Amino acid sequence: MPRSVNSVASRERRKRIMKQAKGYFGRRKNVWTVAKNAVEKGLTYAYRDRRTKKRNFRALWIQRINAGAREQGMSYSAFMGGVKKSNIELNRKVLADLAMNHPDAFKAVVEQVKSAK
Fold this sequence. Notes:
117 residues
């Protein structure tokens, strides 16, 4: 009995990987084994860094809130503790945006936190 190989599926699989490798430099874009390894590694980095991105943004928001709070004469930890005590339901993303782009609104939040002490 003749050997049966599903070359249609194999070619489709290779085409999919080669399409993902488009734009890579050198042999990574047109040599199958090199492209396959490069794409696999790239997907691994993408998976890992989708989680890292969340950490990085939280750290950025904390830095911005800290800078804004210190301009008003408070530390970050005292400010965030006061925010929780005063039942202000603004998350770090919104507070960081206020500190950067709307300093008057952020100052009002700081005053409310100070008065709740």
